[in-house]
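hey so i finally got around to running the thing on that chain from the lab meeting. sorry it took forever, my laptop kept dying and i had to restart like 3 times. anyway pasting the input first so we r on the same page abt which one it is
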Amino acid sequence: LARGPRTTLLSWTRALAGVRDRKWFGPAARVPHLAWHLGFGRIVGRFFIVITTTGRKSGRPRHTMTFYTRSSDRIYAACLYGPSSDWFRNLLANPVCTVQTAEGIHSMSGRPVTNTEELATAVSGRGISRRIMRVGYGRADPRDAFERLRDTPLVAFHPSPELGPEPLKPRWPWAAPVVFVGAMVLVAAKLADRER
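ok and heres what got predicted. didnt touch it at all, straight out
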């Protein structure tokens, strides 16, 4: 793990709790989900991963979205709400899931990261969210790493031969082309006004 100023488990947990408790966080957290449903999955999928698990009680597909990094054939996602999060508990009960990013839909198997070497791999992975991972995990003193993983689990996803649950489908996929065409019309109208 990268050495640097020691960021304690307590400060990381307080920072997360402080953000999650803000009034704007709930609505802001729904924006990527809404954008995905509007057909902007290719754009949103560069920043966020959609994880579809099988409900441990209901047996039905359950969808969640969080940021991620990628390293070779593995994807790493942080469980920001801790080990009591439904999607994390669903994965512990049945690790086979469906993962959606900008690169497509994949059947994968998820398991918690439990060692510092793999944590270092996740933090150094590629992806737009790697800076968030570095802030959360990368500056941790190795002595704090296991406590941090216990408090805010990191999940490693690797390809699975088993088929995962039904992926999240956009509800309004026609919205993205409509917005794009509308934007093009506005740009063309502005350019035409300038030429006059």
